[in-house]
Amino acid sequence: MARTPAPGTRERILATASRLFYAHGVRAIGMNRIITEAGTGKNLLYQHFTTKDDLVAGYLARVRERRADAIHRALDAAGDDPRARLVALVGELGDLVTRTGSRGCAFRNYLVEFPDDTPADDAAGTTDAADTAAGADTPAVLAREHLAEVRAIIDGLVGELGTDDPGRLADELCLLVDGLFMQAAHRDPADVRRGADTAVRLTRHLVGA
C-alpha cells in the first residue's frame, strides 16, 4: 500500500531542491542529495515529482512567482510615471542581486547550464525528445517565459515615454539588467552593491528621471 505523504512534504522537498539548485546549479545536485536533505523517502519524492525535470520546473516556477510578485509590488509603489516605474524595476532587481547568497538569476543560470534544452534528467541526451517536446512547462520554457515577461514590461514602459527610438532604449535597459545578474554570480558583494547603485543611476539618466 502506498504511503500517504504528510502535509507539507511537497513544499519541503521543493524548498530543499530550490536552495540546492540555486546555490550549486542543477547539474551538480542529484535526487539522492535532495532526498537526504529534505528528510524524505525516495518513493515520497517521486510521488510529487516523477522526474528531476519536474522538480527543476517546480523550482523555477516557484522563483518565477516570487520574482513577479516582487516586481509588481515595486512597480505599484512607484506610481504611474513610466520613468519612475523603470527606475523602480531596476532598483528592485538591484536589491535582489545584493541579497546574501545571491548567485545571479536562476533563469539565466539554468539556460547557461542547459543551452540546448537538454532535460535535466538526461544531460547525456538519451531521453526521447518526444517525451518532453509537448511539455508546456519544461524548465527551459519557464526560464525563457520569465525573461520574456520582464522584457515585455520594459518594452511597455519605454513605449509610454514616447522616445524616438524605444527599441534601442529598451535594449540598453535590458543590458543593464543582464549586467546586474552576471556580476552577482561571481563578484565581491561590495562590487555588486556598487554595480546595483550604478545601474539605477544609469537608468535615471537613460529615461530622464
From TrEMBL:
Residue stretches making up the HTH tetR-type domain: 7-67
InterPro entries in UniProt: Homeodomain-like_sf (IPR009057), HTH-type_TetR-like_transc_reg (IPR050109), HTH_TetR (IPR001647), Tet_transcr_reg_TetR-rel_C_sf (IPR036271)
Domain of life (superkingdom): Bacteria
Ranges annotated as spanning the membrane: none
Keywords, alphabetical: DNA-binding
Portion annotated as DNA-binding: 30-49
Gene3D superfamilies: Tetracycline Repressor, domain 2 (1.10.357.10)
GO MF terms held by the record: DNA-binding transcription factor activity; transcription cis-regulatory region binding
DNA-binding found in the keyword field: yes
PANTHER family the UniProt entry points to: HTH-TYPE TRANSCRIPTIONAL REGULATOR RUTR (PTHR30055), HTH-TYPE TRANSCRIPTIONAL REPRESSOR BDCR (PTHR30055:SF200)
Protein name: AcrR family transcriptional regulator
Organism the protein comes from: Pseudonocardia alni (Amycolata alni)
Phylogenetic placement of the source organism: Bacteria, Bacillati, Actinomycetota, Actinomycetes, Pseudonocardiales
